[in-house]
Specification:
This protein has 111 residues and is mainly alpha-helical. Helices cover 53% and strands 7% of the residues. InterPro entries: HTH_HxlR, WH-like_DNA-bd_sf, WH_DNA-bd_sf.
């Protein structure tokens, strides 16, 4: 398993800039969802799979491995949990969650 690291050539960028490596990692299927589902409480593999509603076991296993290798997740007493680095990343995403709530409130209701 290998995750994109700063300095690597990644999908869509040959610059090696750290942000490009991060965007490549976070752009992988289910990656952001896994991080989001773990931002409040740790979870076992089965619990996390249920929270992610439809992720296959093989994809979830791959993403967990990549996120552990990137030091964003760790195995804790109660299952998978965000590492300090993962918690910091999710904190940076919280303004996006607030923006999304405001956006949803401004959209007209669907019939």
């Amino acid at each position: 398993m290998s995750f994109p690291q700063p300095g690597d050539v990644v999908r869509g960028s040959t610059t090696g800039r750290p942000i490009m490596a991060l965007l490549d990692l976070l752009g992988r299927r289910w990656c952001l969802r896994v991080l989001w589902e773990l931002h409040q409480t740790p979870a076992s593999f089965r619990d996390l799979q249920a929270r992610c509603e439809g992720v296959s076991p093989s994809v979830l296993n791959t993403r967990l491995g990549e996120l552990r290798e990137a030091q964003l997740l760790e195995n804790g007493e109660r299952g998978y949990q965000l590492s300090a680095l993962g918690q910091e990343l999710v904190q940076q995403c919280l303004p996006l969650a607030l923006w999304a709530e405001n956006w949803a409130a401004q959209l007209p209701a669907r019939p």
